[in-house]
Design brief:
Elements: H1 8-12, E1 21-22, E2 25-26, E3 28-29, H2 40-53, H3 63-83, E4 91-94, H4 97-112, E5 118-122, H5 131-140, E6 143-147, H6 157-163, E7 168-174, H7 186-195, E8 199-203, H8 215-218, E9 222-226, E10 237-241, H9 243-248, E11 259-262, E12 267-269, H10 283-299, H11 301-319, E13 325-327, E14 337-342, H12 347-356, E15 359-360, E16 362-364, H13 369-374, E17 380-384, H14 391-408
Parallel strand pairs: 3-15, 5-6, 5-7, 7-8, 8-9
Antiparallel strand pairs: 1-2, 4-10, 9-10, 11-12, 13-14, 14-17, 16-17
The structure holds 4'-deoxy-4'-aminopyridoxal-5'-phosphate (PMP).
């Protein structure tokens, strides 16, 4: 069965990268969790900016500057709709999820976290949702607490409950794990954090490309994602923050655009979100991100999620037939990530042999070393899927892995 109304062959036509051959074979791209491919609509929006509209934004009265400003600011409105934020002023442009988290640790964190306070993260986090909190805790003599997981890669909510206390200032967890694909019960996690009087930050880098996100329904205090993983350009991302919190936070970086008035004696700051956006931003990528959000919305996040789930079920079953293959991450709620090890063969060798067959997978710790440590493995091979992938490509992966086994057995 193919998800109703989902024409994957038609969708593939929109992605020029997918039309090429590598080592003489059609490319099979299974590395979308690292970065997703871009449709023509995104490439075209960036080309149009440089070819027709190119100017700096927010300060010019001339036509090009006004056009560029309008196009860039239109993305803020699109991101507001994409996340169902209350106001476009809750959308702060950042470089990506990494900067979104660092912005919160270095503004809210510097102001709100005191000695003896606690920050809760989870055992599933990407390094970008570990290290900034660790740095903050070190600076403030605060404590980092970690929600443990079971051997499926699911967070243990009863253990989480025990970690929450009046000292908890922030609970920062990923919506979807990049290493294992686990979809965390963030709604429940947020509710429990709020009951304990803590704020929440959700790292949505791996959720935004695959499912409908509604920050109001979740009641997230902060939510961040990267443009390049939602089929947009690199160098741009979004940090959503509740307006009340953003208004109370000190600025992030100093410079042009984030100010209202400057004298040598005193500077007053611009309003939110511009207070957090110092300097000339990545204008072209911002405009490209708008095209990407339109593209994904037009296909429909619910349709995307249903189709990818079909691929996940198909892929999980197909890979289980490979002797010696062990799936790492078998959560009951899972996004389309197939992370695995094969007995006796190093993931880098698997990745190298698959590359010769034009199959692009990622091998390594996926910037989640604590997850690897938990499973007592140094690395996995990860095939991460998107809505432009097909069951036929999964068959090629299975065939490729059989060849890998022949080479190394
Ligand atoms: N969080 C998760 C779960 C991720 O997968 C990634 C990227 N792999 C990031 C954060 C960081 O995203 P970026 O590098 O785009 O800032």
């Amino acid at each position: 069965m193919v998800a109703a109304g989902f024409d994957v062959e038609k969708i593939r036509e929109d992605f020029p990268v997918l039309k090429q051959t590598i080592h003489g074979k059609p490319l099979v791209y299974f590395d979308s969790a690292a970065t997703a491919q871009k449709p023509y609509a995104v490439i075209e929006a960036i080309r149009k900016f440089y070819e027709v509209d190119c100017a700096n934004i927010h300060r010019g009265v001339h036509e090009l500057s006004q056009r560029s400003t309008a196009a860039y600011e239109e993305t803020r409105v699109k991101a507001k709709r994409f996340l169902n934020a209350r106001s476009k002023n809750e959308i702060v442009f950042v470089r990506g999820a990494t900067e979104g988290i660092n912005l919160v640790t270095s503004t809210w964190g510097r102001q709100a976290v005191k000695e003896g306070d606690e920050i809760v993260i989870s055992a599933l986090e990407h390094h970008s949702n570990i290290v900034p909190w660790q740095m903050l805790c070190e600076e403030k003599s605060a404590k980092l607490r970690v929600i443990p997981m079971n051997d499926r890669g699911e967070l243990l909510l009863d253990e989480y409950e025990k970690l929450l206390s009046p000292r908890t200032r922030m609970v920062a967890v990923g919506h979807v794990s990049n290493a294992l694909g686990t979809i965390n019960p963030v709604h429940k996690i947020i509710e429990m954090a709020h009951e304990a009087g803590a704020l929440t930050l959700i790292d949505g880098a791996q959720a935004a490309p695959h499912m409908k996100v509604d920050v109001q329904e979740l009641d997230a205090d902060f939510y961040t994602f990267s443009g390049h993983k939602v089929f947009g350009p690199t160098g741009i991302g979004v940090l959503f923050g509740k307006l009340k919190l953003l208004n109370a936070m000190p600025p992030y970086q100093g410079g042009g655009d984030m100010i209202r008035t400057v004298t040598f004696e005193k500077t007053t700051y611009n309003e939110v979100p511009y207070k957090f956006e110092a300097g000339t931003p990545n204008i072209a990528s911002g405009i490209g991100l708008g095209a990407a959000l339109d593209y994904a919305t037009h296909i429909g996040l619910d349709k995307i999620a249903a189709y990818e789930h079909e691929l996940l079920v198909y892929g999980t079953k197909a890979l289980s037939k490979i002797p010696g293959l062990k799936m790492i991450g078998t959560a009951r709620e899972k996004a389309a990530v197939l992370s695995f090890v094969i007995e006796g063969i190093h993931p880098h060798d698997i990745g190298t042999v698959l590359d010769r067959m034009a199959i692009a997978v990622r091998t390594g710790h996926h910037c989640a070393q604590p997850v690897m440590d938990w499973f007592h493995i140094p690395a996995t091979t990860r095939a991460s899927l998107a809505f432009y992938n097909t069951k036929a490509e999964i068959d090629l992966l299975v065939e490729g892995l059989r060849k890998v086994k022949e080479v190394f057995d």
